[in-house]
Design a protein that fits this description.
InterPro entries: Elsinochrome_Biosynth-Asso
Largest sheet: none
Number of strands: 0
Distance between the termini: 53 Å
Shape: flat
Oligomer: single chain
Keywords: Membrane, Transmembrane, Transmembrane helix
């Protein structure tokens, strides 16, 4: 059955699709993303070893002492459990991200509303950010499984591109959400000049997704991360320190002019060098990765709740649970909710078959 949207007609009263904005779908995306955030944070504080080379193919590195066999066995088991859990939940995020974006794009010609498209891109945001963080946590695993790394990066690149394209028209939707949220999304796809909150609500997530994906591509390849980026960083650091040393020697001699130059030239240069070192260290830090993931998750959750609230104040779709009763649960919602069990099933399967 073909669909057609007439943008000149007055949009009908808002009647959201429960397979997009229903409680089952919302719970699946937010719940699976929250589970991934929890696993990655626990992985960092309990499993991650910052002294271990992420590109080391050997499970065990040389230690100056003999490890306790019981501790070694438990640690190996816990690391493997976290690894396979992150693999499962990361792949699940890819599937759910593609499903919500492709499904939404197909329904654009069938009267998908501005309200529903805003919800779609916010849900896809959770899929992108959690899979990007799973890629970082699985850095060692993906180094030894090059095919898995390749197809996941390609799929992530496609998903990130789709999300960026989907976010571009959202700057047009902010004002509509506060007025006529039942407007057809198809009629407002053209990018128009925007400013203020509407512009930054579109630009900020696009920059985060794009820069995060590029950084994952670099960090997951030893050639780019160590041999290229590492050498460039080392050379830049050596040159910067040489310049600082020359400036220090010229400014450290006695005299009012030299002392003034020390405060006005050397100290700002040293501060810039220190900040640059701090930024580069944070760029490769797993702690900063976990902190970024937590902040991005909270920000996405606030954006989703804002879209649900602003787009449906007249109906109370989010604040009044009566609009989504038990009888409104459709097949898509039930399937979405059951998908939350997929990582747990994979974990139980691993525990059942691993020695």
């Amino acid at each position: 059955m073909s669909c057609h949207v007439n943008c000149s007609e007055r949009p009908p009263q808002l009647s959201p699709d429960n397979d997009i904005t229903g409680p089952g779908v919302i719970t699946n995306y937010v719940g699976s993303a929250g589970l991934a955030v929890f696993l990655i944070l626990v992985y960092f504080f309990m499993v991650y070893d910052p002294a271990r080379d992420p590109f080391d193919n050997h499970e065990m590195s040389q230690r100056p002492y003999q490890a306790n066999p019981i501790d070694e066995m438990v640690t190996r088991k816990v690391r493997s459990c976290f690894k396979w859990s992150l693999v499962a939940i990361g792949d699940l995020q890819l599937i759910t991200g593609f499903s919500i974006l492709i499904g939404g794009a197909i329904q654009l010609d069938c009267g998908l509303t501005v309200y529903e498209w805003q919800v779609i891109v916010r849900l896809a945001w959770f899929s992108c950010l959690t899979h990007l963080s799973c890629l970082m946590a699985l850095r060692n695993y993906l180094h030894t499984h090059t095919f898995g790394r390749t197809w996941r990066l390609v799929a992530m690149g496609i998903l990130a591109s789709m999300l960026i394209v989907g976010l571009l028209p959202t700057a047009n939707y902010i004002d509509l959400l506060h007025s006529i949220s039942s407007e057809y999304a198809m009629c407002h796809l053209a990018i128009r000049p925007s400013s203020g909150i509407a512009l930054w609500s579109m630009v900020l997530p696009i920059l985060v997704i794009a820069l995060s994906f590029v950084s994952r591509v670099i960090k997951l390849h030893k050639t780019l991360s160590v041999e290229l980026w590492g050498k460039l960083r080392t050379r830049a650091s050596v040159n910067a320190r040489s310049i600082l040393l020359v400036v220090y020697n010229r400014c450290s001699t006695r005299g009012l002019k030299q002392r003034l130059s020390f405060f006005l030239v050397y100290r700002p240069l040293f501060a810039a060098f220190f900040v640059a070192r701090l930024v580069f260290a944070a760029w490769s830090s797993m702690f900063v990765e976990g902190l970024w993931l937590l902040i991005a998750f909270i920000w996405g959750l606030l954006q989703l709740m804002g879209a649900l609230n602003d787009g449906s104040k007249e109906l109370g779709l989010w604040t009044m649970p009566g609009s989504h009763t038990r009888t409104d649960w459709t097949f898509g919602q039930v399937v979405s909710l059951l998908l939350l069990a997929a990582p747990l099933i994979s974990l139980l399967e691993y525990l059942d078959h691993s020695p």
